[in-house]
Design a protein that fits this description.
- The protein is an alpha+beta fold.
- It folds into three domains: 69 residues, Arc Repressor Mutant, subunit A, CATH 1.10.10.10; 111 residues, D-Maltodextrin-Binding Protein, domain 2 (3-Layer(aba) Sandwich); 91 residues, D-Maltodextrin-Binding Protein, domain 2.
- The chain is 44% helix and 18% strand.
- The protein has a five-stranded mixed β-sheet, sandwiched between helices.
- Helix 5 links the parallel strand 3 and strand 4.
- Helix 1 packs across helix 2 and helix 1 crosses helix 3.
- The protein is elongated and about 80 Å long.
């Protein structure tokens, strides 16, 4: 007897169910009826010989095997979409599919608005969708095909993707403009150091900026974003390290801050990443070059 073969459609059912953990919502996402989704899931389980989900009246729980299968299904579905993009672009002779770009909140708002005029000039018909998310969410979104490319900062594990380095982003010490005792680089170890909360990769990047120092963050006051962090510092609650990109982009021009260069700090590396199976590698390479040039213009403008 010939062994059943799983289909792309069945894998899409598995991925949707893993996201929704609800048969009705998963069916709606896949634009099928709930019985159709349930039947497809059972057929997939029979073909693989393992149980993917435990069903109760009130909930759906993925089995350990189901979680692994769902993760691999998302990768396969992303590769299929890349294949479809390649066919579409080949037939049309030019990229005409939307670009879904994800960016971490400590890079995207300070770089992309300045790059958009050149992006629009280079690709006037491109539909450009931007998502600001934390690094882990961006990586998951890229792997699953929810995003086409992501803009974030290393050190961060991106081995499964193509990574295009863009630029290094250093730091400056920030304190209140009227601080009675300005913080010098050598005095950071004893300063009350304010940081973003630990969900932001910039939290770790900041602590790693001066590996020879034992920087101790004030965990009683962790900020949710750079504007909030800068406002806390401006009110005299402590000092922090701010990324040079945001400073050059004018993000803190309205804050009463005193900035001191931290020249020997270990910079974070800002990169653009995309799936190795992506059919739009040339297009993403052009985007990377625009982002590099934009960063250079910001630096030159800030220095003038």
């Amino acid at each position: 007897m010939k062994k059943p073969v799983i289909s792309i459609r069945q894998l899409s059912f598995v991925a949707a169910l893993a996201e929704e953990l609800n048969f009705s919502r998963a069916a709606k996402r896949c634009q099928v009826s709930q019985p159709t989704l349930s039947t497809g899931l059972r057929e997939c389980e029979m073909a693989l010989g393992v149980q993917i989900a435990e069903r109760t009246r009130r909930s759906v729980i993925l089995t350990p095997a189901g979680r692994e299968i769902a993760a691999r299904a998302r990768v396969i579905l992303a590769a299929v979409r890349d294949l479809e993009d390649l066919a579409t672009q080949t037939a049309a002779g030019m990229p005409n599919t939307p670009l879904r770009l994800g960016a971490i909140p400590t890079v995207g708002p300070y770089l992309l608005p300045h790059a958009m005029p050149e992006i629009r000039t280079a690709s006037p018909d491109l539909k450009f969708y931007l998502r600001e998310e934390l690094a882990e969410s961006l990586r998951d979104g890229l792997a699953s095909g929810r995003l086409d490319a992501i803009l974030l900062a290393r050190p961060f594990d991106l081995e499964e993707f193509h990574v295009e380095p863009l630029f290094e982003d250093g730091f400056q010490i920030a304190m209140a403009a009227d601080a009675p005792h300005p913080v010098a680089p050598a005095g950071l170890e004893g300063a009350r150091l304010l940081l973003l909360d630990e969900d932001h990769c910039l939290h770790r990047h900041t602590l790693d900026a001066c590996p020879e120092m034992r920087l101790q963050p004030d965990r009683r006051a962790l900020a949710t974003g750079l504007p909030t962090l800068a406002s806390m510092v401006a009110e005299g609650l402590g000092a922090t390290l701010l990324p040079q990109l945001a400073i050059d982009g004018g993000a803190f021009a309205d804050h009463r801050l005193s900035l001191v260069p931290l020249e020997k700090a270990r910079p974070r590396e800002v990169v653009l990443a995309w799936r190795k199976t992506a059919a739009r590698g040339v297009e993403f390479g052009h985007l990377a070059e625009i982002l590099r040039q934009t960063r250079q213009r910001l630096a030159e403008r800030a220095a003038s």
